[in-house]
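Lab notebook, bench 4. We co-purified these components, and the gel suggests they stay together. Before we commit to crystallization screens, I want a quick structural picture of the whole thing.
Request: model the full complex, all chains together.
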Amino acid sequence: MAGVVAAPAGQAGLAAAPARGLPADSTPWLLLAPATLALVILFLLPIGYVLLLSVTDPAVSIAHYRRIFSVPLYTRVLFNTFTTALTVTGVCLLLGYPVAYVMARRSDWVSTALLICVAVCFWTGFIVRTYAWLVILGNKGPVVAVYQAFGFGAPPRLLFTTFSSILGMVHILLPYMVLALYSVMKKIDPNLLRASASLGARPAASFRAVYLPLTLPGVVNGSILVFTICLGFFITPILLGTPKDMMISQLINQQIEELLAWGFASAVAVVLLVATSIVLAVYNRFAGLDRLWG
Amino acid sequence: MTRGGKNVLSRRRVLKTGGAMAAGAAMGPLLLTERTIAQTRTIYVNTWGGSWTAAEEAAFFKPFTDATGIRVRTVAPVSYAKLKAQVQSGTYEWDVTGINQSEWLRAEREGFVEPIDWTIVQKDKLFPNAVFANGIAYCALGTNLAYRSDKFPQGGPKSWADFWDVKKFPGTRSMYNNAPRTLIAAALADGVPIDKVYPLDVERAFKKLDQIKPHIKVWWTQGNQSQQLIRDGETDMIVMWNARASELKEQGHPVELVWNGGMVSTTMWGVAKGAPNRKLAWEFIQFAVQPKPQAEFCNRLFYGPTNPKAFEFVKPEVAKQMPTYEPNAKQMVVTDPDWEAANAAQLQERFTQWLAS
Amino acid sequence: MILAIAVLVALFLIAPILIIIPMSFSTAVSFQFPPPGYSLGYYRAYFASHDWLDPTVNSFIIATASMIVTMLLVVPASFGYVRYRFRGKALFNLLMMSPLIVPHVVAALAYYGYLSSIKLNGTLAGVVLAHGMLAVPVAFLVVCATLKGFDRNLERAAMSAGAGPLRTFFYVTLPVLRPGMMVGALFAFLASFNEAVVAIFISGRDAATLPKKMYESIRLESDPIIAVVSSLLISAVLFGVLLSVVLRRKPANVP
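Here is the predicted assembly.
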């Protein structure tokens, strides 16, 4: 009667052990050991190496950290990263909510079509999509062509601006937001809205009083997801943005690629890691991390 | 009995996992050896990409492979930081580089340069002054002002002062993300004569740069990027390498090159310290600096040959479009590798910070 | 009204991606839309270019191998995690999720230093190990979810009907779980195949992946072949998504 895999490892003496494994049983450890070992040796150890470098290269000191928080340029990079991530999250929420709403509330071909758009976008790599924006916003791209066809004269500067960089990031992160919202909205019982309407609430009022609060977990999940990915965003701001809007990961890249300043780059990376961890820890405190990626 | 069966199962799974991992670990070295064997007759050349690599392919790589059987593969882009990183880490991506003279000198002073192998390179086959800091001179390259002639029907900018004059010459501007070139342009724009550039007044140059910074659309890092910017009209005025601008003009794009205030520097061939294929690398360099291949390269991209005998094979109308042509040369700043190599580290750090602020 | 907004946003998502496909048949040397003329020239160039084919092959090798590494770690771990109670369960879960918590650029920096010190930088093995770790959380989430949804009574029924544990596992447990495992494996494959940041830092010359090559080509060359590669990738995604819709599964299992 014991489950196949859950059965305690077969000492005859333990025949009476219950189906759920207990610490005396060595099977879970055998099952967990490979992943644990691999992640410790091949993931945590490298990250620890970065921590170490940040206070030992070129000499043992916390000078790098002092520099990050005292040089105006670097504090500005930190500040800019946070405001950019906030902006992107806000825009994603505004754009994503209606899409997820329609997708969840309808069950016809419109819903399927929207889902296809979101899914295709989601599975297309960052680089491909960033490249698409390079083409679209470029001086020979369709936006400028339309602009000039209407005779507006010289096109505005689109590419390599704060605008293009944020647009690219929104495009890349929007599917995450939509899917996070969708997975919550889909579970909301449509009868709730009907019930609220039958009690005399106007659609707007019942949306505010009933639907919106129910979708809040999705809003929080999507926002945290987008915000934390955006904090460490690397490729899109480099290819579409300007050096003036430098974000943390660009700073890391620049310190390595141009100046080979390993220690300083590591310290910046640690700051980024800590910032991300704080956001996730706060989330974990209130919701539990598991739900975020569920 | 269920217990026993289960036990076998989980053990088997563990064995399987372990076996696959061991197989993976065993395959690693195998792959490595295969690569090493394949590499023995191949050299990797560090190059600028785009038309630079295409010209090298035609002028050097193909004839060299035809003559020796040694294959040439390329890795882009050229970067001092990459040279340093690969020597320090011992993971080599390339053996040979064609790099700016001042960066090469800096690398030599810091110990990232392989000494010339005189058992392979024959001194009597080299031209006078070919050797510098354990590298061999490759070509003379101008970093100049260029502009879209269709955007300036009344006549375009003629100097760095004009480039800085956003009222008289409105339009988008792009510059080279390179500290010394940009600072020299700023100094010239501020009225420093071309023969009084060194030692560079860095403070003064940065002050002048502050004025133009808001008007710079792109700080480009790669030659092809500079070409794309001006070819697609992404920018109206740009700092770029002379041959890259000439190439666009030859292709029929409305691009005009300004010699006045250009900066001429030498590009060097060199080998990374400890590079795995260094013997073959020197063989290649010896081949590439001979008159014919050099001329072949410069006929495609209009940089100046360093080997005087190469001019015999350069078309006269092409020679006039090179930084080595006297009427062009006398309007240009000759860059000083000594000063630049000595100041590169702090200049670059300051410039990088300045760019981001 | 809301529908209109939703449709516009969906267009904003999909249109920029689809625009790449006509670009790939362009005759123009740089990013230009609409293309001045059409040809198959850049497709031919792609299939003749070692500079593009090598990274393509590398990407497939690396994604397949790292998928195997990920699944070898994740499948036993998920069984252990879902079916047993043990001390430190929350901590173990955090460990399994850690690659998702750490920003990729931090992991990239970490692997660069670490793999250099064990001489695996720029090798296929190095990238496989790194990608294998990075895909653990996604695969773990999917496989755990499948396992949690698995009705243990099926196993009990099989056993009480006289099937031995092995038979039960291979004829009941595995077939029921297979779709979930396949999804987990597919996610792990795609996580590696699409991963750019870590690959840019560590894949070097010989193990360069397709995303790395594309990134460099945008930065260095503005090479029109990138439109071809992008179109092929987009077509594959389109095909996959449409297929999953036709098969009436959920088109995108949100990781």
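Residues 250-255 of chain C have pLDDT under 50 and may be disordered. Worth comparing against the SEC data before the next meeting. The longest helix of chain C spans residues 50-83.
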